[in-house]
Amino acid sequence: MMQRTAIFVALVCAVLAPVRVSAMTDIRYVVRDKFLDSVPYSETTQYIAPKKQRTEHQNMSGTLSGRVLHGPRMASILDCEAEVAYELNLDDHTYTQHRFQRHPLPVFPPPAAAAAKRRAATLRIENSTRDTGERKQMFGFRARHVMTVKQQVPLAGSKSKPQTQIQDGWYIDLDTNNGCFTRPAGTHVAFLAIAGNDVAEEIEFKHSGPVETGFPVLLVSTSEGSPRGSTSSTMEITELSLGPLDPALFRPPADFRKVDQINSSPAATFLDRSIETLAAIWRKLSLRR
């Protein structure tokens, strides 16, 4: 039975150039993400080496008292050569391990056999890019300013709504492909945010303008037509360095303990629990008035 889904396009479509497999330099960078003005930003540190990568982050959640709770510091390690993935809790020194199998990335245009079986399109994803001609130095690279408009256009039989996203970005020529994922030459990867529970869409893609192949160091996105209304987000690289990384980054430390499940949730402090209890009591008293 066909899976029932609705296409909610927060990132309407990102089209990338064919992956280049090269002798890349080890890379470390810190990315700061902020979604909406009222939400605290999050930071992620990424380490990339040939056939290996590591991501460090810290989960956050809000409380009824308006405070932000920080979870433990976490790390995810991918060893593509050994086909092993690790998840680490850096605070309590525990980790999990599971098998990782590399699969070809979904591509557009699809292989001829798959394309022959496609139904008539019900949803079109349109991308247009424009190089503004502006240039500036960022992290020792010459960065270019590119505007991208991504549109979700419902066609006959679609259950989706029109949506538009505008991306104002600065890009540099930095090869971050470490050989973990591959796709056929001459194709592009398309990413969609999927949510909801409706009839599956048959999607077609349309792109105009030069395909931006660079690494984004600053990306400000504004979306219209989503369930949240008008939304904005900012992705910014705050640190970037090139050079050999310590191989120990890509395996669990010897003093870490292997477990079946990692605890990654923020833990409320006694003060947080007390404030939320008082807030609940106050709401009950207010309802009785």
Key features?
289 residues, mainly beta, 13-stranded mixed β-sheet, two-stranded antiparallel ribbon
Q: Estimate the helix proportion, in percent.
A: under 10%
Number of helices: 2
Overall residue-averaged pLDDT value: 78
User: Strand order within the widest sheet?
Assistant: 14-9-10-11-15-16-2-3-4-5-6-7-17
Given helix and strand content, the structural type is mainly beta
Estimated share of beta-strand residues: over 45%
Q: What are the low-pLDDT stretches, counting only 5+ consecutive residues below 50?
A: 1-22, 185-197
How would you describe the shape? globular
Question: What's the quaternary structure here?
Answer: single chain
SSE run: EEEEEEEEHEEEEEEEEEH
User: What's the total count of β strands?
Assistant: 17
Between the first and last Cα atoms, what is the distance in angstroms? Answer: 53 Å
Radius of gyration: 22 Å
User: What's the main sheet like?
Assistant: 13 strands, mixed
Layout: helices, strands, pairs:
Elements lengths: L5 E2 L19 E9 L6 E8 L2 E11 L5 E12 L4 E6 L4 E6 L7 E2 L3 H5 L6 E16 L2 E14 L8 E10 L15 E2 L4 E2 L7 E6 L6 E12 L2 E14 L14 E2 L11 H19 L1
Parallel strand pairs: 7-17, 9-14
Antiparallel strand pairs: 1-13, 2-3, 2-16, 3-4, 4-5, 5-6, 6-7, 8-12, 9-10, 10-11, 11-15, 15-16
Care to describe what's here?
This protein is 8% helix and 46% strand. By secondary structure, it is mostly beta strands. The strands form three sheets. Strands 14-9-10-11-15-16-2-3-4-5-6-7-17 form a 13-stranded mixed beta sheet, with no helix packed on it. Strands 1-13 form a two-stranded antiparallel sheet.
